[in-house]
Known about the structure:
Blueprint: H1 10-17, H2 40-54, H3 71-92
Protein name: Carrier domain-containing protein
Amino acid sequence: xxxxxxxxxxxxxxxxxxxxxxxxxxxxxxxxxxxxxxxxxxxxxxxxxxxxxxxxxxxxxxxxxxxxxxxxxxxxxxxxxxxxxxxxxxxxx
Length: 93
């Protein structure tokens, strides 16, 4: 399990996506670049689980979420978001 400030890799993203409330019928052999589409409820549940399991808070209203189209794009966004969150926390101290 990753924690706050730790990178979230493709396996962690796949694990989150495999929740039937997020993506029902996710292929077991999902390639990093396979296109996926999350509905709004699945996306909100994904973000909720992301916060619970990994301590990373992403607001559902962020425009960047439209780019959540593959494991690779989600991983890339979350890695950048986590780095930005960590940098913001360092500036506040």
